[in-house]
Amino acid sequence: MNFFQEKAVTSSDKTFFQLREEIVEGHISAGSKLSEVELSTKYEVSRAVVREAINRLEACNIVERKANVGARVVTLTSEGLLELYQIREALEGMAARLAAQHMPDAEINQLSSLLEGQQDEVKQRNVYYQEAGDLDFHYRIIVGSQNQQLITMLSNGIYHLARMYRVQLGMTGPRVTTAYDEHIHIVRAIANRDGELAEILMRRHIQYSKNNIAVKLSNMK
Amino acid sequence: MNFFQEKAVTSSDKTFFQLREEIVEGHISAGSKLSEVELSTKYEVSRAVVREAINRLEACNIVERKANVGARVVTLTSEGLLELYQIREALEGMAARLAAQHMPDAEINQLSSLLEGQQDEVKQRNVYYQEAGDLDFHYRIIVGSQNQQLITMLSNGIYHLARMYRVQLGMTGPRVTTAYDEHIHIVRAIANRDGELAEILMRRHIQYSKNNIAVKLSNMK
DNA sequence: AATAACAAGATTGTCGACAATTTGTCTATT
DNA sequence: AATAGACAAATTGTCGACAATCTTGTTATT
């Protein structure tokens, strides 16, 4: 589940993780107000640690804060989704390019065998895009870029917001085997050390995902 | 100077801005430790506001913090510079593409005339890449993308770190008229609503900048 | 009736003090 | 002499209280 292992050393960390999960999973609804005192009693910590947690969520673009007024969970809009996926396209495209340049052969082989292992499930039971598998794939490529700032940006910030959209729009939908094939092609480009192609394919792949979600979103209105 | 007008409403804001400026401009040296008590006496505020300011700086990748140990200003390395410019290339390239799609004609015209106004200085006195002009150019395109998350990311986070590198490596160097010509071509692509080309040109432009700085950096060692 | 000024309540911002953790030094043991 | 352990100093983490600001509802004035 937690690919990028985050260990909560301080109390603020724990509160931050809990709060983030509740928001992303939809237990705290989008657009709702975050009262510092309310949360501090709920989690049994002081207001100071709640404030710090909220500040960190703000840095992730998961909550918005106004001075002297308070913090609200962001609202999910089709514009926001579009914006987010434009950023993902740019950054993960670059990650794929860099992975083609820097990813060690060993890691590429692991990634290949990971996909091969998924092949059976996909072809027989049509259960790809099972969050976990998709996530694992993307995360390994991001790490493969060996760009620490890029890794941090994507895993700390963008990833959770993207998941929030998927979870709250009920993305268990179709997009089954096609995504799998796209993954295959991307890995092949990386294995061939073709950064140019890897970037192009990754960007296409993310565009398709976006379109898939955007359809769902427009259906809900 | 401040394109994206940031007004400090709260005391934390002010401390954050001051601290960020001192770090970026090199008055607080890279790699140095940030003591909360020391800073709180220096700026005459409580530790709480200093903590909040430091947290924000951490979100900008300008300081690094370890739990129960403290915060340090990041150290400037050639790897860090490389990573930063890879990110800029991806994000600003996307910004240029989006600007070609969404930027209003009026803004494009303003941008064109801005460059025309700079032409004299450039051709006659060789003083382009005068920080301000370059900055204004990039910022207008970022805003032209009309992607709010992208705008926030670049202006709040990445921009200041990039400036920190430039300032502390003494980037007043050459790269005079070439950058100007690159700007011209990018605007032309945007005016033609050619997002594909605008992105390519912007990415090249940023690659050149990176190379220019990387040379300086390797000379200093 | 509409608007403006005001007051009460609630929420966020700031502060100083205490608790927990780390770091460095000194001592004791092998 | 080197290592381990314990102690002391300093720094960060957490807390509750107070101050400043915003919001809401009421009253007064036109």
TrEMBL record, chains A, B:
Protein name: GntR family transcriptional regulator
Statement: the UniProt record of this protein carries the keyword Transcription: yes
Keywords: DNA-binding, Transcription, Transcription regulation
PROSITE patterns given in the database record: HTH_GNTR (PS50949)
Membrane-spanning intervals of the chain: none
Keyword DNA-binding included in the entry's annotation: yes
Signal sequence range: none
Domain HTH gntR-type per the UniProt entry, residue ranges: 9-76
GO MF entry, a single one: DNA-binding transcription factor activity
Taxonomy of the source species: Bacteria, Pseudomonadati, Pseudomonadota, Gammaproteobacteria, Alteromonadales
